[in-house]
Amino acid sequence: MLFKVGLAALTVYAQTSSTECGAITQVSGNVSEECQDDYCYRVQFSCPAGSTPSHLNTFKCKKGVWHPALGANEVISCIENDIDCNYNQLPSITEGVVANCNDAGCTYSCENGMEPTTTGASCDRQFGLWNLTGANSSRKIRCPKAPKEPKHQMRAADKCGEFTGFDENTVEEVDCDKKYCTYQCKEGLHHITSSIAKCTNGGGWKLEGNVQFIRCFGLENTWHESWKRKDGIYRPPFQCDPDRIRHVTLADCENEDDGAVTQCNVVCKGKVIDTTRCINHRGIWSEEWFDC
Questions:
Q1: DSSP character for 159?
Q2: Helices (H), the chain
Q3: From CA 169, how far away is CA 121, in angstroms rounded?
Q4: Is there a cis peptide before residue 68, judged by omega within 30 degrees of 0?
Q5: Are 221 and 251 in contact (CB under 8 A)?
Q6: In degrees to the nearest 10, what's the CA dihedral of 210, 232, 218, 280?
Q7: CATH 2.10.70.10 matches 2-80
Q8: What 3-state DSSP class applies to 82?
Q9: Percent of the chain at pLDDT above 70?
Q10: Ranges of H-type helices in 4-159
């Protein structure tokens, strides 16, 4: 199978046919096959500018079989790029609303622990339009006022309930009661998003820096550490949702060619174990689950 390298006219033969798995043949003519190692046991596919492969995975040759396996009628083809949404067209927020946005969309919450009129915004990339979710989505996102608590009712600290907003895979609970909890990173990890959780007068849990969740990371140059803005909104150099990468962290993310693809190292407990790619105009990872 042939593929072109960069913008040059040079044609290079991929070596999948020389592997024990044989050549990958279920590929349309405008898709390029690219070996990811010296012996072509790891293969990815690319498309001409303006389109994206229908299969974003890294195909791996294992024991004579390509994984993931293609169905009998499946063909790897090129799909036209989707349309990005304009963040300036999102509804404005009012006082008391907390916005947590990344390049995949936004989620909204209230400082007083109640539910806002709009709880989330996701991009319909087929048309480049925002889909809003919530009880009463409108031009402005508002939070209802918390009802005043009669004196005979229980204290706010008794209403918060058990705090569960932390990643049990990376974070250890040091001490916790109805009003105050402390946390630390598990061995091999560092940079905790918040080391404490406090029960507020409104009956909700509050973390340091207005973050929404407690987790730890493996390296200083993960997406969370390197691309954190002062306003608490994370802008990684890719269009995919980093929260979809479970149990591991991302590091050393670099844009390839015109920025259509960003490749990141996958880190587990401080060690690089694999790579994953973000197809930026589709907001989809080539791989999301890893053994850590």
A1: H
A2: 156-159, 223-226
A3: 28
A4: yes
A5: yes
A6: 140
A7: yes
A8: coil
A9: 77
A10: 156-159
Distance separating alpha carbons of residues 259 and 272, to the nearest angstrom: 23
Residue 43 near residue 36, CB atoms below 8 Å: yes
Instruction: Let me know how long the chain is.
Output: 292
Q: 183-200: per-residue pLDDT in tens? A: 988 876 666 778 899 998
Helix (H, G, I), strand (E, B) or coil at 226: helix
**DSSP notation for 160-202:** S-----B-TTTEEEEEE-SSEEEEEEPTT-B--S-SEEEE-TT
Token pair of 248, please? 């591991």
Encoded tokens for 124: 């319909």
Side chain identity at 154, as an amino acid letter? M
Cβ(34)–Cβ(27) under 8 Å?
no
Question: What are the domain boundaries of the chain?
Answer: 2-80, 87-141, 156-210, 223-285
CA–CA gap between residue 287 and residue 30 (Å, rounded): 23
For 162-185, write each residue's pLDDT tens digit: 888 888 877 889 988 878 899 988
Inter-residue contact 133 to 124 (CB < 8 Å): no
HSE-up of residue 207 (Cα within 13 Å, Cβ side): 18
